[in-house]
Amino acid sequence: MAKKVTSKKVATKASKVLRDGRTSKDSKSAAGSALSQREKKRK
What we know:
There is one protein chain. With 43 residues, the protein is mainly α. It has helices at 8-19, 25-36. It is 56% helix and 0% strand. Helix 1 runs antiparallel to helix 2 (25-36).
């Protein structure tokens, strides 16, 4: 099974959606899902 990872560009846009108070519940749900698939930075 291939590992799905959200791109940095999409993660940035998803973050903006979550911070915007005017977006719908469905939009925030999709944005949260995209961010949860973002690979964590390694030190």
